[in-house]
Amino acid sequence: MRLKCPTDFRIIRLPCTGKVDIIHILRSFEKGADGVFVVGCMEGDCHFDQGNFRARKKVEQAAKILDQIGVGGERVRMYNLSAGEGPLFAEYAIEMDKLIRELGPSPLKIAKNKKANAA
Amino acid sequence: MSLNTESKLEKILKAGHLGVTSECGPPRGSDPEGIKEKGKLIKDYVDAVNVTDNQTAMTRMSSLAACIHLKLMGVEPVLQMVTRDRNRIALQSDILGAASFDINNMLCLSGDHQSFGDCAQGQNVHDLDSMQLVQTVRHMRDEGKFLGGDDIKRPPKMFVGAAANPFADPFEIRVPRLAKKIACGAEFIQTQCIYNLDKFEEWMKRVEERGLHEKTFIMAGMTPMKSVGMAKYMKNRVPGMDVPDAIIDRLAGVPKEKQAQEGIDICVEAIQRLKEVKGVSGFHIMAIEWEEKVPEIVERSGLYPRPEV
Amino acid sequence: MIIAEKKPIEEIIEEIKDFQRILILGCNECVTVCEAGGKKEVEILASALRMYFINKGNEKKIDEKTLERQCDHEYLEEIRENIDDYDAIVSLACGVGVQFAAEKYLTTPLVPGVNTVCLGANEDRGLWTERCQACGSCVLAKTGGICPVSRCAKRVLNGPCGGSTNGKCELGKDVDCAWQLIIDRLRALGKLDDYEKVAPIKDWSTDRAGGPRTVTREDVKI
């Protein structure tokens, strides 16, 4: 199965989305990401019972912080799918890619570039 | 029964008459005319008038000052005192102040929580609770001593009351709680507004079983409903209030302009029924901002004229 | 334990905006357990603040450290070496930790990063509730193990007041009536008769009202 999928994101594998912490999302932005999406199993299907629910909470909290600091909470999203749904993963990646392109580069990058240019 | 104070209320109750008290809220300003006007309206129809102490935690003229206005015009006041706003120093000090004007009755309360009033951000004191305030007044009167142990020159001669709510939860503790207040020294009790007469009578039965009605004078609290809206508000919004649907239905069953009169009728009928209940020593008629109706209620309930003592 | 909650980030930003080098200092004790000021919260706050100030074109040096405790000399000493590297410290410890650090490092401004709320328990995931007000003279033996000082809005020692409805406080349906709980417990203990014992007027001199409190133990002093 060959799927068309954007290539401009890095996949970080976790045993369960329950491992995702707010700091992982924030650090991604600090290190230059323009967006982050977390892909977990279907709600109710977590092997560890509540991992994906936890992840959703973490994503919501991270979004709130990103709003507060002017980076924008809309740059982080949570998706759910089952392990067999490769095409859906590609679809979500395309959707996220489109969203971030519409939003443009992270304000952090713009601020850093501005500073570099001024120097 | 021997008298402990010069209180007119005490004399009437101990002479075996049904006592009648009413209530006045001090104004939200410094003009004393309103309270005097209210006093004048009900003067001849009641034995004493309770003066509320920043009720519902809304800031008002001090209860003590308003009591003094009434006292000076010949009305017998009942000084209400809540433990929310003053510590034991201020409470004792105000008791002495009241006694210096020969104010002879006090009602000891804890007071509504400040979050219901106009100073929701304020502190509350509750250095004492209401029962401990009863004990304090009795201690000052009977022992002639301050809480700190020193002698009081001319101790305050207060007839001391407390409130009881026969309807609050848990019901099983309502009578033991009354017993506790009596043990602390409450000589008279004014109850929460009674609408559920059956439940009140059930409570009175249990009071009687323990003989508590012989240790204190229980005055049944009555508040006429002005409208079906008020009845619904009391039922749904006022904590510890028991308004049966029958009352609401009855008020709703008459046209709006006649609801007030219906409310008075309900109140009068309730008094007439409760007059016959063993252990009821009188009535505390709280016509909230409706003092002009007190004479009608008293007269129609057969409680007029008031006895001379 | 001591329960705290995070201050809004806007409030912290306002306090530190004029400093350039800032240390976010967490505490490994109570505030870690109540998820307000432990290592994780330090990381998140520091990261968020760094990004905020970069975004504003005013990049700052914002470092992270979490101490075992901030209410003990020995742990607070760990930052002495580096204290001059910072223009200010944001402490995520409770009010005790913030003050102890402030006393120790006289010339370093200290900004609290949490609001200290109460002494409480972790009743449920994401729910912390008050259990004690440290009044200094415990009445729990007389009240069925339920505290009327901390859990009754009026601190009524001979309750319940007339506002108790269906087991709830007059403040609202979300607040348990402490006295209902006391009565339930006394009943369960078969000690309901104790209810009628009048609680005496309380000695509040051991409470906040008596001034700052101290415990001196000659037996453990060296």
Using a beta-carbon cutoff below 8 angstroms, give the protein chain pair with the largest interface and the number of residues from each chain. B-C, 36 and 27 residues
Tell me the series of helices and strands of chain B, N- to C-terminal.
Answer: HEHEHEHEHEHEHEHHHEH
Count of DSSP H/I helices of chain B: 11
Order of helices and strands of chain A: HEHEHH
Instruction: Give the percentage of residues in beta strands of chain B.
Output: 5-15%
Largest sheet of chain A: 2 strands, parallel
Global structural class of chain A: mainly alpha
Characterize the overall form of chain B.
globular
What's the topology here?
The complex is a heterotrimer of chains A (119), B (309) and C (222).
Chain A: H1 22-30, E1 36-40, H2 51-68, E2 76-80, H3 86-103, H4 107-118
Helix pairs in contact in A: 1-2
Chain B: H1 8-14, E1 19-24, H2 33-42, E2 48-51, H3 63-72, E3 77-82, H4 88-100, E4 105-109, H5 130-143, E5 159-164, H6 174-184, E6 188-193, H7 197-209, E7 217-222, H8 228-237, H9 245-252, H10 256-275, E8 280-285, H11 294-300
Parallel strand pairs in B: 1-2, 1-8, 2-3, 3-4, 4-5, 5-6, 6-7, 7-8
Helix pairs in contact in B: 4-5, 9-10
Chain C: E1 2-6, H1 9-16, E2 21-27, H2 30-33, H3 39-55, E3 61-67, H4 73-76, E4 88-91, H5 95-104, E5 110-112, E6 114-124, E7 127-132, H6 148-151, E8 168-169, E9 172-176, H7 178-188
Parallel strand pairs in C: 2-3, 2-4, 4-5
Antiparallel strand pairs in C: 1-6, 6-7, 8-9
